[in-house]
Design a protein that fits this description.
CATH class: Alpha Beta
Low-confidence stretches: none
CATH topology: Structural Genomics Hypothetical 15.5 Kd Protein In mrcA-pckA Intergenic Region, Chain A
Distance between the termini: 50 Å
Number of domains: 1
Helix content: 25-40%
Mean pLDDT: 89
Order of helices and strands: EEHEEEEEHEHHHHH
Strand content: 15-25%
CATH superfamily: MM3350-like
Number of helices: 7
Length: about 230
């Protein structure tokens, strides 16, 4: 049976609240593809810089129009399978996004049990299995909300900020609810079109990846498209 993966993520907001997601990832995907999955799973739009850190190594998704940092490895060229620990323990991946808001997500990557794979293939045609989220806690850390302190302010008084939330694509945002149907709709829209290892295409105009990204984004967050058109 092919090697598939489970990625358990956690983003600590404060001592009481941690946003978590659990993703099933089929065989063949890369660290660059994980960038797309994490963006979808947290309601982000890849507007800002990101970095993966694994041990002493740094990785980023490198589109052809992006200038790489010295010594930073190409996430698109890094198969997830190559990151698995040979002793079977989970691999810790630190994912940082939006260095202004300062989001820090801890990802624990492991090989998926066989019954996960069987269940996934029962849900999709075996040749079209795509990544999906099957568990989550708490609402998304909304794009540009101001980091953990901004999330706390938003969670305390979301109603006065409904217009702003609508401009961010989340007019019905609830800090207690993980919208897995939206996450999975995004993942299906994107990964049913874009093959593994091509996430960097979202940073280059005219690619299949950027077209699929925008289609998935506007379908998942229709008020974003209206806000951008205004």
């Amino acid at each position: 049976m092919k090697t598939c993966f489970v990625a358990r993520t956690e983003l600590q907001i404060n001592d009481r609240t941690a946003i978590s997601r659990t993703l099933f990832i089929p065989s063949g995907y890369t660290l660059g593809d994980l960038h797309i999955m994490l963006q979808a799973a947290h309601g982000w739009f890849s507007y800002h810089n990101h970095i993966f850190q694994i041990g002493k190594d740094d990785y980023e998704v490198k589109g052809k129009d992006c200038s790489p940092f010295n010594g930073v490895l190409n996430a698109d060229k890094t198969p997830l399978e190559s990151l698995l620990n040979v002793n079977g323990r989970e691999t810790k991946i630190d994912y940082k996004y939006d260095f202004g808001d300062g989001w820090e997500v801890t990802v624990m990557l492991s090989k998926a049990p066989d019954h996960f794979i069987t269940s996934a293939e029962a849900s999709f045609a075996p040749e079209t299995v795509v990544p999906f989220c099957f568990a989550g806690r708490h609402g998304d850390p909304v794009e540009d909300c101001g980091g953990t302190s901004g999330y706390e302010r938003l969670a305390a008084k979301p109603k006065p900020l409904r217009d702003w939330l609508e401009s961010q694509g989340q007019p019905d945002w609830n800090p207690k609810v993980c919208e897995m149907s939206r996450i999975n709709g995004f993942l299906v829209d994107f990964f049913s079109t874009v093959k593994p290892g091509n996430a960097g295409g979202i940073f280059s105009e005219g690619t299949k990846a950027i077209r699929a990204w925008r289609k998935a984004l506007y379908r998942a967050y229709p008020t974003i498209e209206r806000a951008e058109a205004a």
